[in-house]
């Protein structure tokens, strides 16, 4: 297969790399990665996914990881624009889905304002892949009428931060599953706020390194969330899932703990 630069309207493709397992990529994502002449790759994208790129492609790593030093967003946007205007076939390879806490919306707005055409290819988001790997649905007629994806890490100067206490009442009344991204650093505060509206025995799962060989998880009650995270040394990148869809999994975990305690 030959790969050539584009010679029409400047174009960038935002590709969702999914949670990490290359087998969770869409066929459309694999084709876009293979056709790229320049790839701008997020920090959480695995080497196994980058391996789908052409040997002649230029790989530029632009790290974006919560709590660590990151490549400035303005620099990434400038670099995408520069490469697109240089007639390169540019792929911005982003962990998860570009439009779910991936700042894809900001990048699309910037590029389109400069006359660059943008195509977006969805990826499986970690909140979906993580809970599915545990054999649990995000919605269930008996337990959850909907699901809410939300970030636990707002901008530092945000004046419209999430009212978690109010959200907890909504989640309880509407029977929603909460999927919280980037919430590990504030797990204690999240627990305290969510207990305003959700029962202490509400099931919670914390899933780290979703879909990767290093994936691990814990299941507990909301009342034990912070204690469990500290005890089991759970860390980022993780998603926190809260809701009654996890009841069956919590019962299994509690039964296993009783068996261990009984010797």
How would you sum up this structure, described in words?
With 263 residues, this protein is α/β, with parallel strands linked by helices. The chain has two domains: 111 residues, Cobalt-precorrin-4 Transmethylase, domain 1, CATH 3.40.1010; 137 residues, 2-Layer Sandwich (Methyltransferase, Cobalt-precorrin-4 Transmethylase, Domain 2), CATH 3.30.950.10. It is 33% helix and 20% strand. The protein is built from nine helices and ten strands. The protein has a five-stranded parallel sheet with strand order 3-2-4-1-5, sandwiched between helices. Strand 2, helix 2 and strand 3 form a beta-alpha-beta unit. Helix 6 packs across helix 7. The radius of gyration is 20 Å and the shape is elongated. The mean pLDDT is 92.
Write out key terms for the chains shown.
alpha/beta; 2 domains; 9 helices; single chain; Methyltransferase, Cobalt-precorrin-4 Transmethylase, Domain 2; elongated; Cobalt-precorrin-4 Transmethylase, domain 1; five-stranded parallel beta sheet; 263 residues; five-stranded mixed beta sheet
